[in-house]
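Researcher: I'd like a structural prediction for the single chain below. Treat it as a standalone chain; there are no partners to consider.
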Amino acid sequence: MAEVVPVTAKGRPEQAGPESTRGGIYFTPRFDIYETENELLLMAEVPGVKAEDVNLHYEQGELILHAQVKPRANPERFLAREYEVGDFYRAFKVSESIDASKIEASCKNGVLTLHLPKVEAARPRQIKVHGE
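Model: Treating it as a single chain, here is the predicted structure.
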């Protein structure tokens, strides 16, 4: 089974997001992670995020998600406001061998779905044993 763990800096407490040079709120999206023989499937809650506002980066076994939620129009007309605007950030170290050229992502109804296909060498295979 694949191991996917959040990336943290050695000797530092885990933080919700990266240190930033600009002010603002960072949210840590919740993820469901599934493994099949052929891929890792990740699903994240990112309410208010549009596909064009997602920055997804995979390099050398590290998957980084940064997504922006833009303010809604007419903020002066709110009677109550509980929904916060901010950026989403999450980073993972993926121990499986992933075929980076075939990674696919989609964002619909506040759910980001990522398909990380395994390279052929990392996929399990049945080995036939011949007898006499």
